[in-house]
Specification:
It is a single chain. With 396 residues, the protein is of the alpha+beta class. It folds into two domains: 2-244, no CATH class; 255-395, Immunoglobulins (Immunoglobulin-like). Helices cover 24% and strands 25% of the residues. The protein contains twelve helices and 17 strands. The protein has helices at 2-15, 33-44, 57-69, 75-86, 97-104, 112-118, 128-131, 183-187, 205-208, 216-220, 255-258, 370-376; strands at 134-137, 151-153, 158-161, 172-175, 193-195, 201-204, 225-228, 241-244, 263-268, 273-279, 293-302, 305-319, 325-326, 333-337, 344-350, 358-366, 387-395. Strands 11, 12, 13, 14, 16 and 17 form a six-stranded antiparallel beta sheet that branches. Strands 9-10-15 form a three-stranded antiparallel beta sheet, with no helix packed on it. A two-stranded antiparallel ribbon has the order 1-2. Strand 12 and strand 13 (325-326) form a beta hairpin. Helix 3 (57-69) crosses helix 4 (75-86). It is globular and about 75 Å long. The termini are far apart. The model is unreliable at 6-15 (pLDDT under 50). The structure holds heme C (5 copies). One heme C is lined by residues 47-48, 50-51, 56, 59, 85-86, 88, 126, 130-131, 147, 183, 186-187, 189-191, 216-217, 220-221, 249-254. One heme C binds next to helix 4, helix 7, helix 8 and helix 10.
Length: 396
């Protein structure tokens, strides 16, 4: 037992959060455009490209809120903690009590922390040299060590990829299994679990994942298809044909992805209108980040006129240590969790309307539920937009 502990401590000191400088030649996606322009374009439209403080209103306002409510931490300290997964190429990975003292007096303008947060190396969020510069992923570390704390970086200038026979005049290449036949290992570096400042685990995608061999990339990067990895002509005078994937990482923010993401069945039961949601995906829905929401809207009709509207919100609610509603990152407790588990179904019952002849049922998804949207005063319409999953009409 003792030696296991010692080993764990040793691993932590060896591997935790070692920042390796990214050379200027590789630090932003613009440097890859000359030969990988199609991939850069796809990635630019992805939410990985928006994961930085300046590019995602929800992320930004969550950080501001945490820093405002948790008076033990300065804004920069919260930003650095979140950078663990959102900006893993950051040069400073933790702050000290001395730093907090200086920051509280606003004397930290020239500090390493402030400079690291302002550096253009991290302004692109999860860019090419986050995923393609990982040398090793340390799955022997505790489950809560994620992002920057779970990886060791390559020397700057070596790109890891799926091919064992690639050659590039611009950078060295190395093949890794997490770029080829085991990509879930890469996604789980960050998409595994997250814990609040009260040590409450508010999301746990890795433990809920139920996949029989399915890979995240099959659905969120699409199937492998013929194309080119680089547009630079090879020795044949033409670019090498390769099996490649899309770099859009499309997901919850894209309305089209939600169409038919769940199957929906409805019937008139003894206690009311029974709506069954069947989730064929290998993770729960909603899943991932807390306060996502699925909404069931039922509009009861008689002779073509609306007689009643019913609505049910399937979301998680969180309480802080004083028992007040809060956001996931400050929570001590999850009070309700109405997600549909992976490869499973749940039935919800809504009251019927007297005299209704039929009912229009709409099942849709929202990125942020009303409670958290109001707490954070989110403005962009994307956060409240209902994205359609399925519509159906039932005769009663
Ligand atoms: C979130 C992680 C991630 C990010 C960010 C990322 N990639 Fe990839 N990339 C992958 C994975 C996984 C594969 C392997 C796909 C497969 O199964 O073939 C890959 C494959 C590639 C390939 C091989 C061809 C292909 O499409 O399979 C190239 C070239 C590449 N990426 C370049 C880039 C560039 C340039 C950027 C930045 C604009 C980038 N990648 C950003 C994860 C990432
Ligand atoms: C001057 C052209 C050029 C530039 C600029 C360039 N690459 Fe490449 N890259 C290539 C070529 C050529 C290949 C090999 C393609 C093949 O064999 O199909 C390649 C392969 C790759 C691979 C796949 C490696 C493997 O073993 O599977 C990745 C990942 C990659 N590049 C990432 C990047 C990133 C990230 C950047 C920007 C920081 C970048 N490249 C800039 C030309 C370039
Ligand atoms: C370095 C950490 C990290 C890694 C590695 C990573 N992601 Fe992400 N991913 C994030 C973060 C952070 C976000 C949220 C960004 C935002 O919304 O601002 C995200 C968002 C997403 C989304 C949501 C997009 C949307 O529109 O809702 C998908 C899908 C996704 N990632 C898939 C993947 C896949 C597939 C892999 C593995 C190939 C992967 N990610 C690897 C951190 C990571
Ligand atoms: C069989 C296909 C499939 C696989 C495999 C899969 N997903 Fe998904 N995922 C979906 C669908 C469909 C949705 C709902 C629509 C959307 O957001 O794309 C979704 C939603 C998501 C969301 C948003 C969830 C929400 O409620 O806001 C995230 C994050 C995500 N997936 C990440 C992952 C990660 C990480 C993996 C691997 C561990 C993975 N997915 C594997 C199909 C898949
Ligand atoms: C363990 C890795 C990790 C850490 C640390 C982390 N996040 Fe995230 N975060 C993610 C991943 C992965 C996603 C995408 C999941 C999804 O879309 O469901 C995400 C998504 C989000 C989103 C949703 C963004 C959107 O556009 O919908 C917000 C807000 C957010 N994180 C806030 C934070 C804040 C604030 C911190 C620091 C207090 C933080 N995160 C720390 C991994 C992390």
């Amino acid at each position: 037992m003792h030696s296991v502990w010692l080993l764990a401590v040793l691993c932590l000191t060896l591997y935790s959060a070692e920042a390796v400088k990214v050379g200027d030649k590789f630090k932003d996606s613009g440097k890859c455009k000359a030969c990988h322009s199609h991939i850069v374009k796809q990635w630019e439209n992805s939410w990985h490209a928006k994961s930085h403080y300046g590019n995602d209103e929800y992320f930004q306002k969550t950080i501001d809120y945490v820093a405002r409510k948790d008076n033990r931490k300065s804004l920069n300290t919260v930003k650095i903690e979140c950078a663990t997964c959102h900006n893993p190429r950051i040069a400073v990975t933790s702050t000290s009590d001395e730093y907090e003292a200086i920051a509280s007096l606003q004397l930290d303008k020239d500090s390493a922390a402030t400079k690291a947060l302002q550096s253009d190396t991290i302004s692109e969020g999860i860019n090419c040299v986050v995923c393609h510069n990982i040398d090793q992923i340390h799955d022997n570390l505790p489950e809560n060590k994620r992002g920057i704390d779970r990886v060791t970086w390559m020397k700057s200038g070596t790109m890891t990829g799926p091919y064992s026979d690639a050659k590039s005049p611009y950078h060295r290449v190395e093949q890794r299994p997490f770029m080829d036949n085991n990509p879930n290992q890469l996604c789980f570096v960050c998409h595994a679990n997250d814990t609040s400042s009260e040590e409450h685990r508010f999301t746990d995608m890795k433990s809920e994942f139920n996949a029989d061999g399915k890979q995240c990339v099959d659905c969120h990067m699409g199937a492998r298809k013929m194309g080119v990895a680089s547009t630079l002509p090879g020795s044949s005078g033409k670019p090498t044909k390769r099996l490649i994937r899309e770099h859009g990482f499309i997901g919850a923010h894209t309305e089209g992805m939600w169409k038919d993401a769940l199957q929906v069945k409805a019937r008139k039961g003894a206690k009311g209108l029974e709506v069954t949601l069947i989730n064929p995906q290998p993770h729960a829905l909603p899943s991932g980040f807390g306060s996502r929401e699925i909404v069931i809207d039922a509009q009861f009709l008689s002779a073509g006129k609306v007689v009643k509207n019913e609505s049910l919100s399937l979301t998680s609610h969180y309480l802080n240590k004083r028992g007040k509603p809060t956001i996931p990152h400050l929570s001590a407790k999850t009070v309700t969790n109405l997600s549909i588990p992976a490869n499973a179904s749940k039935t919800f019952t809504l009251p019927l309307a007297i005299g209704a002849e039929n009912v229009d049922i709409k099942v849709s998804y929202r990125l942020v539920n009303d409670e958290v949207r109001e707490m954070l005063e989110l403005k962009d319409p994307i956060w409240s937009k209902k994205m359609m999953i399925k519509k159906l009409n039932l005769k009663l």
